[in-house]
Design a protein that fits this description.
- The chain is mostly helical.
- The protein contains 70 helices and four strands.
- The strands form two sheets. A two-stranded antiparallel sheet has the order 1-2. Strands 3-4 form a two-stranded antiparallel sheet.
- The N terminus and C terminus are likely disordered.
Length: 1437
Amino acid sequence: MATRATRAASEVAKTKAATNLPSIRKRKSIENDEEETKHNTSIDGELDSDIDEEDESKFEKEFAVKKRQKKSPAKTQQQPQKSITTPTKPTPTKTTPTKTTSKPTKPSATSPSQQKQSSQSSQNTSKKQASSSQQSTQQKKKDTKIKYNLRPINVERLANYDQHMSGTLSNEKIIKRLKKLDEYLQDKKRGNTEGLEVVLEVLIDPKFADNKIFEIRLMTSCCLSEIFRIYAPTLPFDMVVLKVVFKLFTEQVLQGDKVDKKLFPQYFQMLERLSVIKVFALLALVDSSMLTPFFKDCLSRVHGDKEHQPMDIMFSTLLNTILESLEEVPTSLWNELLESLIEREKGGVPTAKAIFTHDLIETNSRFLQVHFDLFLQDLLEPEILAGGQQDSSLNSNNGISKQLKKKKNEILFEMFNILPEFIYPALQNLEFDLEDVNASIRKGAAIVLSRCYSTESASDELIAQRPTLYTTFLNRFHDVDIKIRTVMMEFSEHFTTTSDMEMERVLKSVRDRFRDSEPDIRIKAIQIFQKYIIKNPELMNPELMSEYLERVRDKDSKVRKDAEISLSTVWRSIREKYGPIDDWSNTLIDCFSSIPNTLIHCLGLYDDDKYRIEIAFDSILLPQHSDVKNRSQVFLEIYKYLDESNKQLFKKYLEEKKSLRQEFLALIQFLKNPKVIGAGGSTTPTSKKSQPQQQQQLQQPENDIEVYITHVDNLLPKFIGESSKKLVRQLITPQNKKILDLLVLISDINTTFQEQYNIKISIISKAQNESSFSEFIKYMVNKLAYSIVGKENIKYLLRGLRSDLGLDNFDKNNPIDLLEEFNEKIYEKELKDGVPESLEVLLMLSQVYSNIFDDYGDQLVGFLTCSKSIVYPVLQILSNSWKTLKLSKKTLKSTLDMLLRLTQVPQPTLARLAFKTFIKFATPALTSINSTNGKVDNNKLVVTLKDLANNLFDQLDDKSKNLLSILEVIGCLAKGYSLVLSEHLDTLDILLIKKIMTGVCTLDFNQKVQLNKSVEHHLNNSYSKDVLIKIAAIKCMSNYLLGLREITKKSHEMVNMLFEFYIGLDKNKTYNDLEKSHLKIHIAIGLLRVFQRSQYEKEITPQQFILICNSTSITTKQRGDPLIRRLIEKLAKVMILNRLPMKYMAAFGMAAQQPYSVLALVRKHSTSIIKTRRMVISRLAASLSMAKNLTEFYPESSMPYFLYVVSHREDFERDAPDYIESACYLNFFIDLLVEEADNYSIIHTIFTKLKRSTDALDKKSKNHIIAAELGLQILTHQYQQKKWKPQKHPIVIVLPEKFYIIHDDQDEMSIDDEVTSIKLPSLLPKRFKLPPLPSITDQNNNNNNNSTNNDESEKDENNNNNKNENDNNNDDDDSTTAVPQKSKISKPPAKKVSKKAAAKQKSPKKKTNKKKKQSSSEEEVSSSEEEDESQDEEVEN
């Protein structure tokens, strides 16, 4: 500042000398006359003719630019504006001034440094402005002088002008004379100062300069402006006078709003002259104190609208002139400029003043950059007082206002928008602020940098300027403050760069936020990922996508919802951009083909997500509803890339929809036709029934509707605020009849996709509020609809299948003869690409919606002439949908003939399925009702079956190589139609017993009997021929025994023979270990099938029972052996259907040593069985309380049998003294049975009673007592945290007499408190210590982690992998990802019980939640075994 003051003083001295010595000024003018002649002509022309008129189009263009700036302030900030040009004259009646060319003039009172700066600033202005100015000077100039229509001034009076203007003149005369003077001065050329000395003294007289009359001051200013033009480039006054003159000028400039329209031409000409000759370049030199106030006043008068545009441009020109002349920009001026720059209206929109300031700084940006660097140092300095405390005054010590310091980040961003180099000196400070301990400081730095880095034109340059700052900035994604993380997420949403590497860095930072603790941050990360993927899919890789996909499992419902919608949108965008999935690159397939898998996987997680997934599939992934053909194609693409487990999940979800739809329609049907018991008949009071009975009869309809409501309620999830049952009741009220009718319509399978969509829109529009009923309606309309895939798709799926197989189009008018078209070579030919996806989808639909194929029967049977890989699933479809298929008579006959032919193919599984399908179609076709006696006439069917049996046995006599299929079909005949084999029973006995089971069979079979591993896994290639034949014989024999009408002694001998064969396998040296194990399992499966006939089961011995139960403990080298799973599923099925007594639950307990996947299956089925039994007991206990065999119905009744099996294991005695294996078996089975204190007491009583019993087989054996003591210790240890104690229970414990000898003094033991606590001498070792056992919680967790959302047929390795994956996900971040263990919705096998009914009878069942978490009693078996297991349910004879 000191050097600046010195220079200013020197300049003042020079100026005074120039103004006080006219001779010196004249001499200097003469010396430079030659130099000026080179350009004086053009300059004089410009000045003398006022200012050249600017082209009207250019004026309009400038106006349009300003108008856009006003309307789009944000855009104005981001894009640099053009240099502001010299304004034009707005008066329409006058000629318009033009731009002037900025050329350097001869040095005058303005210092050389100032002129140099002015010249440099002028050279740095827009090239367009310079070229425009040059063009304007070449145009024909017009006279723009203002004429007042007065007589010209008498020149002679100028010598005595002071006297001419003195005296008592009226204001009118003064104004008139000043106008004459102004007109005279306008005509004078620059440099012609002759005779103006007296005029100068008159004009600076306060009488005129300070006159109260505005017009007098205005005319004085006009004259003075002309004086400056004439005297240019020298100054006409000294410094003292200049202050007075500039005071007048500044006053007049700021009076623009008050100028009368009549005076505006003079006013505007004055401003024009001042701007052209750049008089205000002297303002800082004349009086620097006027600088900041003048800027402030000018900025406050900026309007930014069309009306004031010329004035705004004039202000801009004047202020630009001042800025160009400054050697140093004072702090006070920076304060004013920056406060104006960051001024905002409500909503954050820049004001007109801010836009004007932005343009002003931008025009002079290069010149101001150096000055701003100095100001920036003070702006970034902390405000510290001498005492070390922070300054609390309004102004800081360095002159910067405190308010401005608080807004330094806003200033930095606005200056960055003008010129990025402005903030480069502040980058280091910003880097320090990003790591400050104060969160508000970090946030401020993050905000300004996020805006700067989001600027498209300068982000790369800013990153390159300071890479460490960018790295520090990206680290704020992990800031502990949520507000800062939110800022970073907003930055990533708008970040743009040309560098893929930098984009990937940002994406990785966003990916890390998928695990953020705040749901809003995770939602934002999902949205940002979606935006980047759609814009540039090539940036993605499987690593980035993994966390994105994982968000569908988030613990927050809103996050999951956004993730599901986002993933669906991304997949659709990728497909629209790149076409079908098969056309994608490997990178795209790796990244995006798993999206449908991920979404389908969610169907096994949270209940509230299931219908959202359906909506995402139906409305986003698939095309519009009217385009059914394209929807079918896209669905096939998706289905092709689904994992097998997800295909099963999708099927299971469709089954859930089907179950809800069936129960809902049953409720509707009841509402339409209620079955009122006792309501019909006479209404006269002649009945002898008591009044309570009559009242109960009248209440029966209400009770019945409650049953139907309960069935629907069982399949609904929980809704916030209201119980689902109450919502169902509300739905069936009269005021909701329209909604109910729409729901019924959408449940119709013939409703098209478009109609369903319209119904959804109609219903959802009526459920806009956030009530529980609205959510319930939205759930119902999506769950009841046949969305995603339905009846409309069948036509296109069948067309696609025919196209894949190369078949001609179907002609319904020309049905084919299937037998004639059948070709064995074509049948035996394997498909290279496997089963087409279209056929898989058709099969899946037939298993769920069996009634959608009604119009496509003729087309389906046509595929029976194809390859065996196609015929088998087609037979499954026909078998599933036979009730609704419509076949013409000719087609039906051809189909029956073809099915009989298929019963004789080499593939036993296919032959069996063909036979079962034949029975389904032939039974209604070949039977009739006798009109005479009303009996069923099935002679045609019997004759046909006899012919088939004769044909099969003839093939055996001819030693046909089709033995396996023959045995399979004979077994089916024997099971359901044993009478047709009456002529061949002896032959069959000899074949099965003497030739196959106990001898060596000479018959052979074709080696190519296997369809595929998933269908006929029991036809293992590692088996010998003899083993394969024996397996087929065991199955045939079990069906034969099951189908016998009369059970004889010979039948029991055949059963015993199977047990003997089972025992003899251990000594057999012909078979390998795998063959022995599998033969045992097949025998066990066969015997379970046979024992469904109670006559066989009652004759079973304890040793045989032990063999059956021990079959589940067989282990093989094949991990997750499917045959073991099949045995468990077979056992579970017959027990759920109550075809075997509860004692066979013991077989589940003996599977404790199996792999985790098998244990998961065991736990699933056993839980289903136990809950089913307990639910039935709770409903029927009152009516069965007197039944003697009720105790055998309780699940706990299986414990004595299980303990007997454990204690008679061959390894039991070798297991002493630690009994590790025995403890493992007992712990597993106890865990299956014990749920509450009631169950605990029953098991405790059983163990106590077993300690006082004797083994019926070996009276000296104490093994069962040791096992009971071991069970008591496990029971006490595992449930010690529950603090349960033995208590009374309503069950009478009855030990099986075949297994135990019960003493007479134990008859009332089960109901005596004292007896249950009797302590008997222990037979365990004295220092026996219970081996380490997994806690109940650990067992459940291990089971759930391995069984969740996996198909039952998956191998154990896959389950273990899923377990590890789930564990890793849980360990990664428990705050964001929750892994639910299983789906909550499943249909219970029995009705719910009312509170009143539950209160009548106390039962040992678990007090489960009122909501429906019951396992289904009709669980589907795996696809590979489903057909085989379904045969047991066929109607016999």
